[in-house]
Amino acid sequence: MAHVQNFAARDALLEMLRGADELAAGQARLAMESLPADIQADMLIEMLAWDSEEDVRFAVRQLGRLRQPKALWPLLQAMITHQETELQVEILKSLAKFRDARCVRALERIAIRSGGRIQTEALEVLNNFSRMLHSRFIRRCLDSAVDRIREFAFVTAVKQKSRYWEKLVGEKLKREPLEAVRSKTLTSLRSIRVRELWQAVFDLSLNDPSFTVRLNAVSVLQRIHSNAVCAGLVKHAFRDEGAKQLLAIRLLASYLGDSKIRAGLYRLYERTQTPAVRLEVLAVLGERAHPETFRFLQSVVDGNGDDAYAAALSLTEILRESDWDTVESLLDRSREVPGPVRQAVLYWICRLNEEMPVPVPVSSRIMELLKDRDRAVRYMAVRAYARIGRADPFEKLLTISIADPEKSIRYISYAEAVLLAHRDPEQLCKALPIAYISSQLAKPCAQLFVEVSVGHKTRMRDIFKQAFEILHGGLPDLQDRPWKDSALFPLLVNMVRRDASFFIELLQEPGWNSREERFLLQILAASGIVRYEGLDTAFLARAYERAPGMLRTEYLEFFETLKYPHSDLSRALVRALEQTPDVETAERLESVLVRWLAPQAPDEERTV
């Protein structure tokens, strides 16, 4: 029947749709979709008058899909005929798809007279026709007692893009009681061309009790650039006082490209005696780089007045790579430069990209400031020194970490050393001589080396070899110092306790000479570990049997720290006991064997 396009076939299809047989009705609905759109629309319009809500709902949805102009008035009539809320909502959704201005007046009446979901949906549909709505309707909505209608009206009025509506919105916005409506209106603004709207937004940014509304109002004034906004800001900035003036100055940052605005701010700074205004002007001038602004800020800094620090902060915001001469002059200790100014410049250096090189003259100035009398300057100098990438950063930073009288500077020096060690582990070995010379560095150095090296075998092996060279004559001027009393020995012992398996593997590697092997055994013995999981006792037995006399003694000291039996080691020590002529060695061998072979009581000794 769907293919027979005549009135008889159409009527038969409608009868199937209306019939009690659900299966036949479903097939008829599918078949209807193959008909031409105008024929479908005629059938669906007829279905709007049926009693079955399900059939009417189907007809409404299909008419919205087809968007045939002939269906517009039948759908509006259905809004009156059918009073079910869900069905009326469906009709409004279908009407929204038409985008036909002929339904606007009817939707206006529905929006005003209805409530709840129907009113909300009608307003949503009317959003599509904001430029076609009658002005009386919008004004009536602006005065409505219903919050959602007022919100719709404000947004619609803003979309009209005319001075009349901007003026009206400005007048109404001041008296709007609901925070959500004020906020929605502000976020909908795209232009400000009249004084009334500008003043309303500016007043909201200062005086509205809601933080959200104030924030949205400031955002509007920052993103909308117009003559009205600029004129209002200039008036408040140069002729007003108090909070209005400060806010206007802050918002003028968006207009610093105008030479008249910049000149006005320079004059305002020079004539005003209000500290808050002067500081605000300096802060705003740092928002945009310009040669005139650079010279003005530099003159304030050179004046060494109360505002020098604020001017320096703004100056660092607009510094460029070509301005290193200015930076060097501000860091020069021979000049009378206030400490806060140097702090600002040093902080700027700390914020530079790590890949940007710092010129040698500036680096030299930073090193001089490490001894400055001002502790705040020294603090920032330490941070900047860690940034400039010297070849010997650990030596200087670790020395400061124990020598500076200020606790905060000692702390930041060590913290910067840790950060550098993580970024450049290869520099770690350069700090080993410092750890050897100064017993005061024992704890920070051990903590630094353990934190950065444990778990990294190459780093730990390099540190071990470098420490051995230092402690056994690698540095001639340090040979007389008892190496077990130095900071390096507990450092290595701590590393053993954190990663004992690595040092056991290190002991089993070929190529060690007897002095290095003794050194490693002494460190293992001093660690206090009594049980090593996966220990190759057969290797230790062979190593002990082939070791010369002094090295055997070190092996025995290591064995004495172990408190459990090993069959391979036990047999090797028994053979050694039978063969040794030395009474003292024999007694030590017997002591180890008795401890190993005696019943072992549970203990809480260190086990790794």
Can you give a write-up of this model?
This protein is mainly alpha-helical and 608 residues long. Among the domains are: 10-129, Leucine-rich Repeat Variant; 499-597. The chain is 69% helix and 1% strand. It has 36 helices and 2 strands. The chain has helices spanning 7-18, 22-32, 37-47, 53-66, 72-81, 85-98, 104-113, 116-126, 135-142, 147-159, 163-175, 179-188, 195-207, 211-223, 227-239, 242-251, 259-271, 275-285, 291-302, 308-317, 324-331, 339-350, 360-369, 375-387, 393-403, 407-423, 432-437, 442-453, 457-474, 488-498, 500-508, 514-526, 537-546, 549-560, 567-579, 583-597, and strands spanning 529-531, 606-607. A two-stranded parallel sheet has the order 1-2. Helix 18 (275-285) packs parallel to helix 20 (308-317) and helix 34 runs parallel beside helix 36. The longest helix is centred in the last third of the chain and has 18 residues, at 457-474. The protein is flat, with a radius of gyration of 43 Å. The N and C termini lie far apart (88 Å).
Task: Report the portion of residues in β strands.
Answer: under 5%
First and last CA, distance? 88 Å
At the fold tier of CATH, the topology name of one domain is Leucine-rich Repeat Variant
Which residues form runs of ≥5 with pLDDT under 50? 474-481
- Would you report the number of β strands? 2
CATH superfamily heading of one domain = Leucine-rich Repeat Variant
Q: How many distinct helices?
A: 36
Question: What is the percent of helical residues?
Answer: 55-70%
Query: What structural category arises from helix and sheet content?
Result: mainly alpha
Named CATH architecture of one domain = Alpha Horseshoe
CA-based shape = flat
Mean pLDDT: 81
Cα gyration radius (Å): 43 Å
Class of one domain in CATH? Mainly Alpha
Sheet with most strands: 2 strands, parallel
